[in-house]
Amino acid sequence: MQSTQRRTKRHKRRGAEIGRKTLVRVEANSPRLHRAALGCLALLVLFTLLADSLRPRPAGSWGVLQAAAAAGTSSTSAETEAPQQQQEQVLFRHEDSERTSEFWLRSGRQALGQALKVAPITERAKNGIIFIGDGMSLTTITAARILSGQLLNKSGEGEQLSFEQLHNVALVKTYNVDQQVPDSAATATAILCGVKANFYTLGLNANVKLNDTNCARVQRNQVDSILRQAQAAGKSTGIVTNTRITHATPAAGYAHTANRRWECDAQMPRGVLEQAQCKDIARQLVEDEPGSKLNVIMGGGRRCFFGANFVDPGPGAQAGIRQDGRNLIEQWIGQRRANNNHNYAFVNCTRDLRSINVDKTDYLLGLFAYSHMSYEELRDQSRDGEPSLAEMTEVAIKILSKNPLGYLLLVEGGRIDHAHHENVAGVALRETIALSWAVQTARNMVDPADTLLGVTADHAHALTINGLAPRGNPILGLSYFKEHSTQLPYTTLIYGNGPGGAQRPRPDPSQGPNSTDSPYYVQHAAIHQEEAFHDGSDVAIFASGPYAHLFQGVQEQSYIAHVYAYALCIGDYANQPHCKQQQADRPPVTSNDLNLQQPGTFDSAQEASQGRPTVLSGAGPVPFGRPAGFNVATLPDGRGQQAGGRDRSAGGPPLSLGNFPKSAACRSCDLMPIFGLLMLSLLWPLVQLCTVSRANGRHLF
Questions:
Q1: Left (φ > 0), alpha (ψ -120 to 50) or beta: where does 156 sit?
Q2: Active-site option among 184, 436, 544, 558
Q3: Region 24-36 average pLDDT
Q4: Which is it for the CA torsion 651, 655, 660, 666, positive or negative?
Q5: Tell me, what's the pLDDT at 10?
Q6: On the CB side of 183, how many CA atoms lie within 13 Å of its CA?
């Protein structure tokens, strides 16, 4: 008992002594504590003011989302809804200056000043590049423009895609000779050959109709593409696409056939195959001009280049579908050797593409997928995956621009159309943005004084932007009003026909697994079809460079090829007066920005034993093994193959283009990194307090 009392007294004395010493040290450090406390207070005030400034506010100049619609009320007209806007949820706040006349007058004067500076270029074009967005309607461009801004947390309406900055614009009529609403084969024939054609036919005039089995008539009515005319003028040529290289749009540059589906011998009628004059599209690419003389060929579609005795290196290890025993990849390599074209390469993945030396490569065959290449956001971005459309465009220009006589390049963003066929508007818009990236890549590499660059579409799709949505409303979200009869919300983007019309009654797009929150939401369609049909409305062409000013007004689609031929002085326009002008020599693009190295080697005997095709590069063997890391993913309906043979499988998780625009309630979530930095700043004065306390022998807490 006594020992316990003694220990207690001793502890009390020690505690009192420590308390006196601590008080002396704290008093000595009191200025430091005061500064820390004041810092905490100031940062708390700043944080509160910032959070308040981000709080959604009604009325005034803010974009709004109708509160009455969210509450389930209805109205018979937009006029009766307008007074309720003072109580509506905020989406976007535009600049206060936009309410003034001066803002728009000044903007108009600036735009006019820029337009007055644009002078037509009337010297012959050395190079030509034509981009085709398959199915890229005017509505698609508008919606993609808005989405491109909203992915950057802007309202989107005032943004521009890269090709919208080109100075010359015209409207283009897309009908076929026999169809009011066209298909891609006949429209691509018009764009690249300057002659309108019948539905589903390629490289032929309208004397040949779909499924014509008279090969002699097909041969008599062939029309040459501007790619062939460019080759005759000594220019280099190339085709880049993210569809099968034998698909309708790229095939119009080199093939002649009565049915665009005849990509492979397995898809042709026996009676046609027995006629020597008729070949499938893949064979025409490899064996006949102008396909056999193309310097750059990049896309998908390996399945038509070899038969069942070879296994494709892509996902699923599928066999080829050729039935004639040919290996067209080896045949293409053999032709390069026979013609003494030693600087060639075959590649089948991003790693191989980046391994080539563009300064030493004159011929390139790149086949990156069994069927179509993946959607950009589903693309395997590893070195064993598929290159982007922009990267393929860059490599193509570097190879082609070595020719002092110039080049002509076709680049297709073909998967815009495929997403539209499935009514998956979000994917179609993001594919349009990916095409815009490829266009910007080209613009960064070429001289606008000697390169005619155009961006157009082959046809439209029946997509609408509707519902009086306010400014800043998510373009992939719900529209302004509810449907009058059902009181269900509906989306801003709606299709005229397609698989989105399958469910009756129409489901609520704001709820369930297939809601607008899904990145693969299937938009509603008015008419149910297994896949959406095309739209017959006009499309646009945007252009810059020599003679781009000739794209004006409303033109036939076949007019495009004539402008390119005239500007490049090829074909029927080779002897025009401007073609006699001497062009100043310009250095070719030879810089190697991709850190390219020589291709690796492989054991051909081992590859042959595994049943894989042995393929070689002029600079050394290139591996043709299975790319690692591929995972098959499909769109929501679970089908890997859609009607008509369109392969919609793709590798890897959603990538690259970011998330969808956030609603007003989550808009400030995008500034959470800033809030995080502020919180770290708040912690610093607290650390100072803790440091003072620990220096005095005690923890603050």
A1: left
A2: 184
A3: 52
A4: positive
A5: 60
A6: 16
- Is the torsion defined by CA of 444, 445, 451, 452 positive or negative? negative
Task: Indicate the residue type of 275.
Answer: Q
How much is the pLDDT for 582? 59
d(C-alpha 560, C-alpha 611), whole Å: 45
Mean pLDDT, rounded, for 10-16: 55
Is the Cβ–Cβ distance between 144 and 137 less than 8 Å? no
**Burial (CB count within 10 angstroms: exposed 0-12, middle 13-18, buried 19+), residue 662:** middle
CA-atom Rg of the chain in angstroms: 32
Q: What is the pLDDT of residues 91-127, one digit of tens each?
A: 566 778 899 999 999 999 999 999 999 999 999 999 9
**Cβ contacts of 424 within 8 Å, gap of 6 or more:** 520, 521, 522, 523, 635
Of 16-20, 125-129, 175-179, 368-372, the poorest mean pLDDT is in 16-20
Dihedral sign (CA 553, 559, 561, 567): negative
Rounded Cα gap, residues 310 and 307, in angstroms: 6
pLDDT for 623: 28
Could you tell me how far CA 301 lies from the centroid of its own chain? Answer: 19
Question: pLDDT at position 641, please?
Answer: 32
**For residues 168 and 515, what is the distance between their CA atoms, to the nearest angstrom?**
39
Q: What is the pLDDT of residue 373?
A: 98
pLDDT above 70 covers a percentage of the chain that reads 70
Handedness of CA 517, 519, 520, 526 (dihedral sign): positive
- Higher local confidence (pLDDT), 373 or 503: 373
Distance CA 297, CA 353 (A): 12
Tokens at 366, concatenated: 């790149």
Distance (Å, whole) CA 313 – CA 41:
63
The burial of 505, by beta-carbon neighbours within 10 Å (0-12 exposed, 13-18 middle, 19 or more buried), is given as exposed
CA gap 491, 517 in Å, rounded: 12
DSSP 220-247: HTB---HHHHHHHTT-EEEEEEEEETTS
Three-state SS at 48: helix
**Section 184-189 average pLDDT:** 98
Higher pLDDT, 520 or 66: 520
Tokens (6 digits) for 293: 């003389």
CA atoms of 643 and 530, how far apart (whole Å): 8
Is 656 among the residues known to form the active site? Answer: no
Please, which residues bridge with residue 554 across strands?
A: 171
Confirm if 70 and 162 have CB atoms less than 8 A apart: no
DSSP state of 450: T
What integer best gives the mean pLDDT of the chain?
Answer: 79
> Which residue, 227, 230, 207, 234, is CA-closest to 218?
207
> Minimal CA–CA distance to 396: which of 350, 433, 355, 365?
365
Calculate mean pLDDT across residues 351-380: 96
Nearest CA to 659 out of 176, 162, 265, 152 is that of 152
pLDDT on residue 255: 98
Residue 181 burial (CB count, 10 A): 16
What pLDDT, in 10s, does the model give residues 607-630? Answer: 333 333 333 333 332 222 222 332
Give 512's DSSP letter. S
